[in-house]
Amino acid sequence: MPSALFRKQSLHVERPLPWALGLKMSNHLSKFSQGVAVELFNAFPEMKEFESVTENDGEVALYVEVIPPTGDAENPLRISTLREEITVSFDAYHAHFEDFRNAGGIAHEFDVG
Fold it and tell me: Is there a domain that residue 2 lies in?
């Protein structure tokens, strides 16, 4: 049976604002980071418990780290939003995502209210 952590929910729901989700330091996160947090935690609410923030050169960004069930703390799933890009890493995999256009070429806007 798949873990509830990876159960995907519909993205076509009204999104609560970041402070309504109780995001840590949401007033310090960039608008981009707040929007990504809303999208991520609406799709995967179980990941909220792993949410924190990271700072680099004065920018405060969303940081999520999930230790796998095996307990391998050296290779957790990491998601961050520094420099207005989403970075995902897990084990040997590492990727940056910064182009959020759909197949029709329309850019996705992260709505934070």
Answer: no
Range of the domain at 72: 17-97
Residue 72 maps to a domain: yes
- Calpha distance 60→79 (Å, rounded): 14
pLDDT digit string, tens, across residues 59-107: 889 999 998 888 888 889 999 999 989 999 998 899 998 877 666 666 6
Tell me how many domains the chain contains.
Answer: 1
Q: Pairing between strand 93-97 and 59-66?
A: unpaired
Tokens of residue 113, six digits:
């209210």
47 contacts 8 by C-beta, under 8 angstroms: no
Q: Is 103 part of a structural domain of the chain?
A: no
| Long-range interactions of 55-60: CB distance < 8 A, separation 24+ | 56/82, 59/30, 59/83, 60/25, 60/28, 60/29, 60/30, 60/33
Contact between 61 and 82 under an 8 Å Cβ cutoff? The reply is: yes
* pTM listed for this prediction: 0.69
